[in-house]
Design goal:
The complex is a heterodimer of chains A (about 475) and B (about 325). With about 475 residues, chain A is mainly alpha-helical. In chain A, about 70% of the residues lie in helices and about 5% in strands. Chain A has a two-stranded antiparallel sheet with strand order 1-2. Chain A has a two-stranded antiparallel sheet with strand order 3-6. In chain A, strand 1 (about 155-160) and strand 2 form a beta hairpin. With about 325 residues, chain B is an all-alpha fold. In chain B, strands 1-2 form a two-stranded antiparallel ribbon. The chains are: A mainly alpha (about 475), B mainly alpha (about 325). At the A-B interface, helix 2, helix 3, strand 2 and helix 14 of A face helix 2, helix 3, helix 4, helix 5 and helix 11 of B.
């Protein structure tokens, strides 16, 4: 394999892995802050119990998000140095701002929250976790602004003398409409992940406590379950609305990505939404056979009109050849784009549907002891994680062969092919080394992560914490988050 | 001051923050099982950096991000050129960070022992490699006309670079020992002071030799006083530690590391990454972003850095008490 292919695999593996932990921490930080607020306000030990459980799970995930995030920042220079040279003037700014404005708050106040249970006054301690929650979301904004420049470059021009993109308007970069729709979609998805996480774990714990005859315990977890389910349903609506807005924008800004998502070969009016298609593996849209279609739906998604004409892969290819030069296949991998788009939507809708079922099963103030609900809770856990992963695979793979996709309204040459962004000073052997190295380290950490998560959820069932005594004497509360 | 020069100085400031702060983190990690004879003592040793190490590491991320924004050519050449050493540093930082976070999560002695080893390895490797990396930058590396690194991994291991690695390792060892002495009491403090005393002369000797070599062969006239300052600071740190005044010793040790960064960056200027063929060198001008980007980033830095310094400083104030071994024993709670 070439350095290019290896570097792409490495970016894919490290990014998808990093993005297991990121959406969970983006959504879970505000939920933990909310749980702690509920405890501070109501003084009910149940909320402290849930704060501690999810606080601990949050920390495990946050740690993995942080260490894998360092790799992300360095990777642009290590494997994609030609890209870094090309866009550094524009792309580096939001990255540096993310570090200065968000990372410092996150890490510093998280330290204060973990170790400050005794040292800080209660209000200040609570403020620390809210600051962490604010900063992780701010962080998401800056990184999405950077990513959006790759999807839809604005606020910059191409300087032929230096051969690179140069920033002309930071406000335009930070208020890129691509980022403004990507941010709510990403954050609501993160809440969907965290809501499912809280609901799934609490659901399982509720049923197990209920079966063991621990009525108080079961009610505690029922509270967490309902909170998680509300989060899923509200954020699920947000995901749908923001996703729709994002799709409409993407039809304008990256028509090839959307044509590929539908495996739509030739343009037509009233384009149907394909539910199932099979194709040959040569990335040729003429080989795709659509087996199940909903008429007019893709046109409706693109523009709100069931009869609107849409471009197909071949149309965009022809247009791009005229504009950006012949001899380049401008279509992304059709199978990956088509299926990741469907899996993202299907799994996202699936988790919202599971939440509605959960709501129905826990109605009437009763903690259920149904084995079916316990299994459903565990089965629901991975669905929004997978939906998020497929969402990013779709976004990034659908942008290929571009690293910086051309702006359809752009007047100059601000675009970069992925093949031109890879480091030229790095040999395939070197990329192999780091690819194998990171994959092994990440694999081992995944095993440890899974083991720890399972351990804490189970431990929370077997040894109820002495919450009542902590509540009455907070100064003697053990430092259960510290070392 | 011209914006390019200002950003060169700001990046030096970020590296100073990083090496001063994570420098003692690395030191604490390297001393872990030498200072901590029992699990409770090792827990206390780690507790000295517990609330702050993650914030300290963000200085590295900010230095990286700022280099990307202000000097993209430097960022691209450096990170792709030093590919394998950076990979080793990244893996070390990963296992170290995870070790710090996961070690106390389970009550099993074997589990804790394994993560302690991860923390130790994860502290030694970057402590050594940052010195090797900076020595290579100062010495100059093979770059072609397009600023592409043409050297090899083994080519980075010259005697000068290895001496640089040894110097940072010793500096961080001393810095960390004094920090543990400052943050603990009882036998742990005594032991840390003992090691700090023993480390003082080797640190002064090796760092002095590296500084002198840098000064004589690669630097400019105005950094002579900086070298003198580093030597004085290290001497004062040694003197204070012998008089068991670890607060002063730590202050001088911070100043010494800051002085080393000034010496290294001072030797570079106006290059950011000199090439063996001087015409191919990266300078603050040919490696930088546009004046517009530099101006925007300056506003952002001026607006945010004071806040960062204020709340990070406040964290150290909140956790100013010395860590005791006893208070920590029952600390593992479930749920």
């Amino acid at each position: 394999m070439t350095s290019l292919e290896l570097a792409r695999w490495q970016f894919g593996i490290t990014t998808v892995y990093h993005f297991i932990f990121v959406p969970l921490t983006i959504g879970l930080a505000p939920l933990v802050a909310l749980l702690q607020t509920l405890w501070v306000v109501t003084r009910k030990p149940a909320w402290l119990r849930l704060t501690r459980l999810f606080g601990k799970l949050f920390l495990i995930n946050f740690a993995l998000g942080v260490v894998t995030g360092i790799v992300q920042e360095f990777q642009f220079g290590m494997n994609w140095s030609e890209y870094a040279r090309f866009v550094g003037d524009v792309f580096g700014a939001p990255l540096a701002m993310e570090a200065l404005a968000a990372f410092f708050i996150e890490s510093t106040f998280l330290g204060l929250w973990i170790f400050g249970w005794k040292q800080l006054p209660r209000g200040l301690h609570l403020a620390s976790i809210w600051l962490v929650a604010f900063a992780v979301n701010l962080s998401a904004y800056f990184i999405l602004a950077a990513n959006s420049f790759m999807q839809h470059p604005v606020g910059a021009h191409f300087n032929p003398a230096t051969g690179r993109a140069e920033m002309t308007d930071i406000v335009a970069v930070l208020t890129n409409n691509t980022a403004l729709v990507a941010f709510p979609h990403t954050v609501t998805s993160a809440f969907l992940v965290a809501g499912t996480f809280v609901a799934g774990i609490c659901g399982w714990l509720m049923v197990r406590s209920s079966q063991a005859g621990e009525a108080t315990e079961a009610q505690t977890f029922r509270g967490g379950l309902r909170l998680g389910l509300v989060t899923v349903i509200v954020s699920g609506l947000g995901v749908a609305v923001s996703g729709d807005a994002q799709a409409k924008l993407m039809f304008q800004q990256q028509p090839m990505k959307m044509a590929a998502a539908e495996a739509l070969c030739d343009g037509r009016a009233g384009a149907p939404f394909s539910l199932l298609a099979v194709g040959d593996l040569n990335n040729d849209c003429r080989g795709v056979r659509h087996l199940l279609e909903l008429p007019g739906l893709t046109s409706f998604l693109a523009s709100g009109d069931f009869q609107a004409p849409l471009e197909g892969v071949n149309d965009v290819q022809k247009r791009y050849e005229e504009r950006y030069g012949a001899g380049q296949d401008y279509a992304p991998n059709l199978a990956v784009t088509y299926w990741s788009f469907r899996l993202m939507i299907g799994l996202g809708v699936g988790s919202a549907a599971l939440a509605l079922v959960g709501f129905w099963l826990t109605r009437g103030g009763v903690a259920s002891n149904s084995e079916r609900l316990a299994r459903l809770s565990l089965a629901a856990l991975p669905t929004p994680f997978l939906a998020c992963s497929f969402g990013w695979i779709f976004t990034e793979m659908g942008r290929q062969p571009w690293l910086v996709a051309p702006n359809p309204n752009g007047v100059d040459a601000l675009r970069l092919l992925t093949a031109s962004g890879v480091s030229t000073a790095v040999s395939p052997a070197m990329v192999w080394t780091t690819l194998i190295g990171f994959t092994c380290v990440y694999g081992a950490l995944a095993a440890v992560w899974f083991y720890l998560m399972r351990h804490f959820v189970r431990a929370s069932l077997k040894h109820p914490a002495p919450v009542a005594s902590e509540d009455s004497h907070p100064e003697t509360a053990p430092l259960s988050f510290g070392y | 001051m011209e914006l390019n020069t200002l950003w060169f100085c700001l990046i030096a400031v970020l590296w100073t923050g990083y090496l001063v702060l994570e420098g003692f983190d690395f030191g604490v990690g390297m001393w872990l099982s030498i200072l901590g004879k029992t699990p409770a003592e090792r827990r206390a040793v780690l507790r000295t950096i517990g609330p702050v190490w993650d914030g300290n590491e963000v200085w590295l991320l900010t230095a990286g991000g700022a280099t990307f924004a202000a000097f993209p050519e430097w960022y691209a050449t450096l990170f792709s050129g030093f590919y394998l050493p950076l990979f080793l540093i990244l893996v070390a930082l990963i296992v170290r960070g995870i070790g710090l976070e996961f070690r106390a999560k389970l009550d099993s002695p074997l589990w804790q022992r394994r993560w302690e080893q991860a923390i130790q390895v994860g502290s030694w490797v970057p402590a050594l490699l940052w010195g090797v990396a900076f020595a290579n930058i100062v010495r100059g590396v093979p770059l072609d006309a397009k600023h592409q690194f043409t050297g090899t991994f083994l080519g980075l291991l010259s005697p000068f670079a290895l001496l640089g690695g040894l110097a940072t390792t010793l500096l961080f060892l001393s810095h960390g020992a004094v920090f543990v002495a400052l943050k603990t009491q009882g036998p742990l403090r005594t032991r840390a002071l003992g090691w700090a005393k023993r480390m003082a002369l080797p640190t002064l000797g090796v760092s002095g030799a590296f500084g002198l070599w840098t000064q004589v062969q690669y630097s400019v006239a105005w950094t002579w006083p900086v070298l003198g300052f580093v030597a004085l600071a290290l001497g004062a740190a040694a003197l204070s530690v012998w008089r068991e005044r670890e607060g002063w010793s730590f202050t001088f040790s911070c100043l010494a590391i800051a002085g080393v960064v000034v010496l290294l960056f001072g030797s570079l200027f106006p290059d950011v990454m000199p090439a063996l063929e001087p015409a191919h060198s990266l300078t603050v001008h040919n490696a930088s972003s546009t004046p517009y980007t530099l101006r925007i980033m300056t506003y952002v830095a001026v607006a945010l850095v004071p806040f960062v310094l204020a709340y990070q400083g406040w964290t150290y104030w909140v956790f100013r008490q010395r860590v005791t071994v006893d208070e920590l024993t029952p600390a593992l709670g479930e749920g």
